[in-house]
Amino acid sequence: MKRYLNIGIAVMTCLLVGFLSSLAVMDSISDWYVTINKPFFTPPNAVFSPVWTLLYIMMGVSVGIVWNRGFHHIWVKTALYHFLFQLLLNALWSIVFFGLHSIVGGLLVILALFILLIFTFKWFKVVNKIAAYLLIPYILWVAFATILNIGIWNLN
Questions:
Q1: Is the pTM of this model over 0.85?
Q2: Which of 42, 71, 74, 141 is most buried, taking the most CB atoms under 10 A from its CB?
Q3: Are 85 and 116 in contact (CB under 8 A)?
């Protein structure tokens, strides 16, 4: 039962971080974001919320699986610390890019996020392969978002 509780707490935590970071997006999406030039491959705004919701759920399940391996183990602690820091960078990107309207700042944050996410994947794989594989859609989405951020930077 504790294993499901840990996963539930992890999922709710990821969703809460996603919700809180979306507060920075809400105001800017209808005013600042519409005024900047975007690459032709930019998805419609309606795509982002459901994709991120699914990704946050998968991230939560993933980190919950790792957490269930026992926080006393150094590999688990290392994996969880990496996850926590990348989750903070995830939220920071929304604040910097949308909240502060900083395309370059957002690019720097998302590049750091992507690098830390690769390390997180590596450590999750050491602890539990399924947990690591659950991060693959998130890694791919962040890679796409990085390319999108670079495209926006180039056009503006």
A1: yes
A2: 141
A3: yes
